[in-house]
Amino acid sequence: MNGSIVIFGLRKDMNATEKNEFCHYFYGHNTSSWKGKYRYHRHGLLDDIPHRKIAKGVIIIRSEDLERVKEYVKEKVEEIHIRTVVLNEDDIDILEGKNRATSP
To answer: What's the rounded Cα separation, in Å, for the pair 45 and 76?
Structure first.
C-alpha cells in the first residue's frame, strides 16, 4: 500500500502567535480550564485524517487525504515537499484506523 509523506516548513514571516495558531488548528491541542480541573482536546484537521507524525513538520497520510492537507497548508507554509512512499505494516495499521497512535 502506498501513502504520501508531507514535509513542510512554516513561513519565516509568521510570528510565534501565528505559528501556534496554525499548529492548534492543524494538529489539535489539549487544553484545560479552572486551573486544570477540566481537561479536554480541541479538534484539529488531523483529528479527522489518519496520520503518523514522524517529526516536526513531517507527516505520513493516505494518498486520498493529500488534497485536504495541501489545501489547508498552502498559504501558511514556505515550502512543501510531497512524495509517495511505500507503507510498512505499522503505518498501514495506523492509516487504516486499527491503531490510533500517531508517533513512533
So the answer is: 14
